[in-house]
Structure formats: structure tokens, C-alpha cells
UniProtKB/TrEMBL annotation:
Gene3D superfamilies: Fic/DOC protein, Fido domain (1.20.120.1870). Pfam families: Fic. SUPFAM superfamilies: Fic-like (SSF140931). GO terms for molecular function: kinase activity. This is Type II toxin-antitoxin system death-on-curing family toxin. Residues 1-121 form the Fido domain. Transmembrane segments: none annotated. It comes from Candidatus Altarchaeum hamiconexum.
Amino acid sequence: MKIIVPSVEEIVEINKRLGCNVMNKGMFEFLITKIESTYENKEHIEIIGTIAKIAAIFWMDIIQFHPFVDGNKRTATEAMLLFLKKNNYILETPLVGKVYISLKIANNDIKYDKLLKWLYQRIREKK
């Protein structure tokens, strides 16, 4: 299975639809490189684990690196959901759960490993 990663332009477009502006577009080149390194050139990929890792990177890094003037949590959540959708996966959690985790990430109350486990338990292949 080929993993599909949203482009920088798609992520910026999410933020623009939220009525916000890019503050640090260069951060996205780093983000995409970081994501690609999680799955490129690996022979035996455990797909759901890789999907969860990439989703966690999108969600956590956009929130914590704060590349937009405003809307970082919303953009991060939508970018992560777009990534899942492009790869035929969904996150089975209500909106309130997504908001809660976004706030936990923003306040440094959840670390990457715990976020990864949380995502892994809730990511499902779309039927």
C-alpha cells in the first residue's frame, strides 16, 4: 500500500479556509521530510502503526511548531484527518475527543508516545 501524504499546499489551504494566515511555511518542508522518513525505504511496514505515527506527527508538530498566525489546533486536526482520509482510514472519536486531545497537545499535557497509543486504538480502516 502506498501512503499518501497531504501536500504543503493542502495544509495551507485548510488554514486559509479557517480564515487564518501562514506564519512559517518553511516549517512544512521539515514536517513532510520528517513524515516521509517514517515510511520510506522500509520493506516490512506495519501499515496501521505507520498511519498512526504519521497522523501523530501531523497533529502534534503543527500544534507545537505553531506555523500559522492563528488556527494551529484546528488546522492540525484537519490536516491529520485529511491524511487519514487520503489513506482510507478514519479516527473513531467524537469531536469533543479531538478538541480535548488538541488542547492536551497545545498544553504539553500529552507526549508523542501517549498520543500515538491513543491514535492507534482509534484509527480504523474506512469501509
